[in-house]
Write a structure and sequence with these properties.
Structural class of chain A: mainly alpha
Number of strands of chain B: 0
Low-confidence stretches of chain A: 321-325
CATH class of chain A: Mainly Alpha
Radius of gyration of chain A: 26 Å
CATH topology of chain A: MetI-like fold
Shape of chain B: globular
Number of helices of chain A: 13
Helix content of chain A: over 70%
Number of strands of chain A: 2
Oligomer: heterodimer
Largest interface: A-B, 93 and 92 residues
CATH architecture of chain A: Orthogonal Bundle
CATH class of chain B: Mainly Alpha
CATH architecture of chain B: Orthogonal Bundle
């Protein structure tokens, strides 16, 4: 060992090793990092460049507000897709939020460690299932089940007793808005749960003990000490899962029925931005159709970007001591 | 409020929370059970040895399978790892070992931007950067799109794991008079090896289940192809086209593809989890936090 060290100190070290080494190393790293910068900027730029013919033709807001999507006639409006994306993502967040946070509270606060481990593993498993696999389950199991047990009975009931509801429900079809929203809410549950769980784990012990010492019951401890402290993480988790819901593609494309006739009805097919891209991009031969799909991609990019920024800022603003997550 | 009502409220809340949790967990078990039962029922030897061919082949009861999709998935995914891992690891090192580097703030923002982008957009980017110039769909474009999915995940995982690698390791190296690059490559990276591998595995698992970026890059192929410059099939994307096809035989093959895909994805997640747990001796809270704890916390 000693000999070796002496050998090293006597050896003349080439300048490449010493003074140039760090420079070369950091330059290589810089180039690798720059490629990420390049790709992120390229994404926005490419979507803009490829989509601009359509946006120029229909106008930025004309494209946003137009509700006709006619590739053959060359008229394109993205409103059905944007509406569909906003409806599906917000309503699935609305459905998923409370169960997901409950699961996190149960696993972090109430359950004994063996049960908590089971719940955590199952929920992580749900996050790991590929979207297409959930999609195939939805197509062959969930959608037929919902049609026979929920949509049809509910429509018949509405026809007999509450005809005013019928326009909102529409003719029941198995691949529809409701199916997609329910499946989507399943898919975002693990994200909310995981982030909530992490946030709850970060709540300091003193915080809880103080509440216990005041004689609080278990629920009061959670409500007064744990949840307020973790609210930054929970809110950020909700917004991040909203971002996931906005971008979720395959399961929604398989289950939503893909019809772009506004207004959407609960039991009738609808569509979203990723779904229309997936469905039509391969067949977009017309130049304007292709450009319009790219423009839809651009709007999707903008929405996803805004939602992610919102999540980041919520995380920063609402977290206690700035060390959330 | 009396103590009694407070206790009562406590009970009610617990039962509400528990039923909500059941509402989450039970359908999940249902999904897994359905995919498992239908998938295993549809698996056969032919599934792993034959290629798909035309729909007529399945209708006439001749042997068909998805050997070409499995091979294609492996090729495209490993190619994507080869593209994404160096860049992702390099970026992670830059972010954590050179904290004062002027590009870091913007790099961090753009990495998380890329991380939050829907996977379809990765496909569209790959389409215009690779497919359009090449003039045709190719497996290469597919792996480029998947590499885009993996990149930010790897970068953030590597940054996270290097950040929690103890400073004493770096100090020891620097005290020996080693230059920064040598310290990073020979001391910090080996110490964080498991975390880095975990990050790559998680990125692989995420990307392996993605179909959206592949639909218009690697396009799909009903026949065996190992030429990466031509369209190639992958499991997630084939699963999609089987599920929306009108043929009953293809539907059951879809279930089989589903279970194989799920096993691939879950196996890589499990491997990642096992690795990070072994190295940490701690319970990893979630795969998505992407920050495997290391021995620093122990």
């Amino acid at each position: 060992m000693n000999k070796g060290t002496r050998g090293y100190s006597r050896r003349r070290v080439s300048p490449i090793y010493r003074s140039w080494g760090d420079f070369i190393f950091s330059t290589i790293l810089l180039m690798l990092g720059a490629s990420i910068i390049f790709l992120a900027i390229a994404m926005a730029w490419v979507l803009w460049r490829e989509g601009s013919p359509s946006i120029r033709r229909h106008g930025f807001f004309g494209f946003l507000m137009g509700s006709t999507w006619d590739p053959v006639g060359g008229v394109h409006g993205a409103r059905p897709f944007i509406t569909g994306t906003l409806i599906t993502s917000f309503s699935s967040l609305l459905i998923a939020f409370i169960p997901a946070v409950s699961a996190a509270v149960i696993s972090a606060e109430y359950a004994p460690s063996w049960l908590a481990r089971i719940i955590d593993t199952l929920i992580d498993l749900l996050a790991a299932i590929p979207s297409v696999v959930i999609g195939i389950w939805g197509i062959f199991v969930f959608a037929p089940f919902m049609r026979d047990r929920i949509y049809l009975p509910l429509s018949f009931w509405a026809a007999d007793h509450a005809p005013r509801l019928l326009p909102a429900l529409g003719n029941p079809v198995s691949y529809n808005l409701t199916t997609a929203v329910i499946v989507l809410s399943f898919m975002i549950i693990p994200y909310i749960t995981a982030l909530t769980r992490d946030a709850i784990h970060l709540v300091p012990k003193d915080q809880r003990e103080a509440a216990w010492a005041l004689g609080a019951t278990r629920w009061e401890v959670i409500r007064l000490a744990v949840l307020p402290y973790a609210r930054g993480g929970i809110a950020a988790g909700a917004v991040l899962s909203l971002a996931r819901a906005v971008g979720e593609t395959m399961a929604v494309a398989m289950l939503i029925g893909n019809a772009n006739n506004l207004p959407f009805r609960l039991f009738q097919p609808a569509t979203t931005m990723p779904a229309v891209i997936v469905n039509e991009f391969r067949e977009a031969v017309e130049q304007m159709h292709y450009a319009s799909l790219m423009a839809v991609g651009l709007y999707l990019f903008i929405i996803a970007f805004i939602v992610n920024l919102a999540a980041a800022s919520i995380q920063k603003r609402l977290s206690v001591g700035g060390r959330m997550l | 409020m009396t103590l009694k009502t407070r206790y009562l409220r406590d009970r009610i809340v617990v039962s509400l929370l528990a039923s909500m949790t059941a509402l989450v967990v039970i359908p999940l078990c249902v999904i897994i059970a359905y995919v498992g039962i239908n998938g295993i029922g549809a698996l056969s030897w032919d599934f792993f040895t034959e290629e798909l061919g035309s729909p007529a082949r399945a209708m006439q009861g001749r042997p068909t399978g998805l050997a070409h999709s499995i091979v294609g998935t492996l090729i495209i995914d490993s190619l994507a790892v080869c593209m994404a891992a160096p860049v992702g690891i390099g970026t992670g090192i830059l972010l954590s070992e050179f904290p004062d580097h002027p590009v870091n703030p913007i790099l961090r923002v753009l990495t998380s931007t890329l991380n939050g982008m829907p996977a379809v957009l990765m496909g569209m980017l790959a389409f215009s950067l690779v497919v359009k110039p090449m003039g045709r769909f190719s497996a290469l474009a597919g792996s480029f799109a998947l590499a885009l999915v993996m990149l930010p995940i790897i970068a953030r995982a590597v940054e996270g794991v290097l950040n929690i690698t103890p400073w004493s390791i770096r100090e020891a190296g620097l005290a020996l008079g080693l230059p920064r690059w040598r310290v990073t490559l020979s001391m910090v990276l080996p110490a964080a090896k498991r975390g880095v591998v975990t990050g790559v595995l998680i990125a692989f698992a995420r990307a392996a289940g993605e179909a959206a970026p592949l639909l218009f890059t690697s396009f799909g192929n009903n026949y065996m192809n190992t030429n990466i410059l031509k369209p190639m099939d992958t499991l997630p994307q084939r699963l999609y086209s089987l599920a929306i096809s009108p043929y009953r035989q293809w539907h059951s093959m879809g279930w089989a593809a589903g279970i194989v895909l799920m096993i691939i994805v879950l196996a890589s997640f499990a491997a990642a989890r096992l690795l990070s747990r072994e190295s940490a001796g701690l319970h990893i809270k979630s795969d998505r936090s992407k920050k495997p704890e290391s021995n620093k916390e122990v």
